[in-house]
Specification:
The protein has two domains: about 5-110, Alpha-Beta Plaits; about 120-165, SH3 type barrels (Roll), CATH 2.30.30.30. Helix content is about 20%, strand content about 45%. A hairpin with a 2-residue loop joins strand 12 and strand 13 (about 150-160). By secondary structure, it is α+β, with helices and mostly antiparallel strands. It has helices spanning about 15-25, 65-70, 90-100, 100-110, and strands at about 5-10, 25-30, 30-40, 40-50, 55-60, 75-80, 80, 85, 85-90, 120, 130-135, 140-150, 150-160, 160-165. The strands form four sheets. Strands 1, 2, 5, 6 and 9 form a five-stranded antiparallel β-sheet that branches. Strands 13-12-11-10-14 form a five-stranded antiparallel β-sheet, with no helix packed on it. A two-stranded antiparallel ribbon has the order 3-4.
């Protein structure tokens, strides 16, 4: 009977481990999420591991030995409880797979602010003020246009302080 196990992989070698495990007939799951990053002032979306250095593997220990899996390129060892490799609940794997659906990712990306969006500052020195989103200012800050005394002023604030109107 196949069970899901959690493997600890060498740094940045989860994909290599996944390829080699699949060649041996081991079912693998390497959860990834879309993360928005700002590089050289431009916003881009990239896939990153949900659990860096970890991969889930499903196999029958009577057909494929633990030693074979542990000796696979890119794999360091099993995550263990005591001396035995711990079994990951199947419900957890199914739940992670369901949330990795492309529709879920697209919904998360639709929340990204675009220049011209009207937002409300929900905390900070400009709390309660309506503003226009202008552009990103680093990974966690945004530049806004706020009307102060009948003049539009540019200010920088945290993204966490904004709410789309």
């Amino acid at each position: 009977m196949n069970s899901w196990y959690l493997l600890y992989c060498k740094r940045s070698e989860q994909q290599r481990a996944e390829q080699h495990l699949k060649r041996q007939g081991v079912e693998c799951y390497y959860p990834q999420v879309t993360v928005e990053k700002i590089r050289r002032g431009k916003r881009s979306s990239e896939l990153e591991p949900l659990f860096p250095n970890y991969i889930f593997a499903s196999f029958d220990p009577e057909k494929i030995s633990f030693t074979t899996v542990r000796s696979t390129r890119g794999v360091m060892d099993f995550v263990r409880q005591g001396g035995k490799p711990s079994i990951a609940p199947t419900d957890l794997i199914i739940n992670l797979m369901a949330h990795e659906d492309n529709d879920f990712q697209r919904a998360a990306l639709s929340d990204v602010l675009v220049p011209g969006d009207v937002v409300e500052v929900v905390h900070g020195q400009f709390e309660g003020t309506e503003a226009i989103y202008k552009e990103p200012d680093g990974e966690k800050r945004a530049i806004l246009l706020i009307n102060l005394i009948n003049r539009q002023v540019e200010v920088s604030t945290d993204y966490s302080a904004l709410k789309r109107k």
